[in-house]
Here is the input.
Amino acid sequence: MCARELEPTIVTDLQNRLSYGGYLQLDRLLSSQSPVSARDGAPARHDEMLFIIQHQVAELWMKLMIHELSAVVLDVSVDKLEHSFKGLSRVKLIQEQLFGQWAVLETLTPSEYEEFRPALGTSSGFQSAQYRAIEFLLGNKQKAMLDVFRHDPLALDVLEDLLRAPSLYDEFLRYLARRGLPVPASCLERDFAEPYVRNPDLVPVFKTIYEDTTRWWDAYEMCEKLLDIEESFQLWRFRHMKTVERIIGNKTGTGGSSGVSFLKRALDHAFFPELIDVRTVIGV
Here is the structure.
């Protein structure tokens, strides 16, 4: 048997020093799983721990995604388009993590979930303020969504700010206009708190970019990176819907939604619709 001896230079006296656990605040992080399904003197249901950790990990990844997207939006707003590419690449990899972890939750069977589902009350992933922040950053603005967060003033303030601010797509279109491309005024001079509306007059702008990639290389690369984010988000939505379908079928969601049918409707939304539309006219 090969034993690995402790090297003499390894620090073992961590009294009054920053440790791994201290830096990561693991005492707080690992004590934040509090199952609610214990009842009548019986312990919490075994599989509730999976459910809690799954969603907590997703929230941590979403926190990083918001951190990166916020920096990307700022970069684009000050014409640092190429600087934003690193952040967008990282966002795509975060999305892969969020997509992949659905496989863990899919090990939860309907009967196992039903053992603790009643204890969840009206709590629902639909109430995730961070998920809503990501949607707003990417441009899916809906004022009515704010009503879900009236009970949480801090989250509400953040979301109200994001609702009124230009989205990533808005900032990209403003950047293209500053570069001299004929972006329609209706895309630039609008109430950013309102949902973005697909504009066919924007398609020729993207056609110009795709048909002269040498001149517009940075914008061309940005278009493709945005499509990466769009596609990954749609795949995440689809996997979410299929996971819910697998576990609860067509039951109503804990938060009051219609469940799977509600999630299916989200698949119809495109963050960057003209980047899809332009593909039809390239080469025509």
About this structure: The CA atoms of residues 164 and 191 lie 8 Å apart. The longest helix spans residues 217-248. The chain has a mean pLDDT of 96.
